[in-house]
Amino acid sequence: MKIEATVKQLRALLQLAELDQSAGPPSTEASRRNREAAASHLPRRILDRYELLLQAGRTPVVVALDRGSCSGCHLRLPTMVESKTRRSPAVHTCPHCQRMLYVREFVSEDSQVADDLSSGRTTLASAERRP
Questions:
Q1: Could you say which residues of the chain have pLDDT below 70?
Q2: Quick one: DSSP state of residue 76?
Q3: Residues near 11 by Cβ (< 8 Å), separated by ≥ 6?
Q4: What's the pLDDT score for residue 113?
Q5: How far apart are CA 38 and CA 8, in angstroms?
Q6: Would you state the torsion angle of the CA atoms of residues 57, 9, 115, 79, taken in this order, to the nearest 10 degrees?
Q7: First-residue to last-residue Cα distance in the chain
Q8: Are 7 and 107 in contact (CB under 8 A)?
Q9: 42 close to 12: Cβ distance less than 8 angstroms
Q10: E strand residue ranges, 1-131
């Protein structure tokens, strides 16, 4: 499964996951506000999927693609899933553990490829050629 997302939305999703993982349940007013602020930047479809996985106890909910494997369950992804995940800044699903997958290069702060893809200034083929 793939849910289209922008680089900014992926970063907001990672921020939300980090807040949930580090603080546990939002106990203070400030942590609740921080969580709501991060969630407000996400489309309903992504947020619903995230909440479903969180309630099911799939922590961490959002994991990176790491050398062709899901960094949540550490199982090798089918080649087609890996390829699709690497080609677009979107939220993909691991077919083994159902966690949300992303590619680190798309959300890194200094990633020119991510900025180009989100603004439509480059093709996927040219993005794959960059180091």
A1: 23-27, 109-131
A2: B
A3: 107
A4: 44
A5: 11
A6: 40
A7: 27
A8: yes
A9: yes
A10: 2-4, 62-66, 69-70, 90-93, 100-102
